[in-house]
Amino acid sequence: MKAQVGQTVLHCVEGDITTQVVDAIVNAANETLLGGGGVDGAIHRAAGPELLAETRTLGGCRTGDAKLTQGYRLPARYVIHAVGPVYRANDPDVPRLLASAYRRSLELAQQHQLASLAFPAISTGVYGYPQAEACEIALRTVVDFLDQPTSLRLIRFVLFGAQAYAVYAQTLQRMAQADSRLSLLTDD
Questions:
Q1: Least enclosed by CB within 10 Å: which of 4, 18, 64, 75?
Q2: Which tens digit of pLDDT belongs to each residue from 55-75?
Q3: pTM
Q4: How many separate domains does the chain show?
């Protein structure tokens, strides 16, 4: 599923984020930045030990923030480590922190004049964020960010599994029908 916002294409795919050929991939990291399970562990394994050596020098990262490293053995030049929140129902800070993790990643990509970026579904694994709610926040944050001029020409959401992909594709389609900033594109 693809949509366009200004000069930027939003693309939802089912796949493995570690194989994406983009300027940067976003890691759903924990506050230590020292690796973990799920996406975080997969990225650290694919990038090699040099990534861990670099993240050790960063002093961790607060929830809702992001930090950039080299990509090492990944096809992506950089990794943006974004720390999403652990889901807690009825906690008003949780949606704000999730949006902030996406926004900070976009700001770092812009700061480094990157043209392409791939996101996972931050906080939806072991952090327990409900997929549909997290998707809505992710897509809305990205679309709102694209209201300003940006170097980004491609933002890909790389989803693990058919169910996650379906949630993103349906949400993007629904948003495109309701938001004039978005236009659906045909997949090629």
A1: 75
A2: 999 999 999 999 999 999 999
A3: 0.96
A4: 1
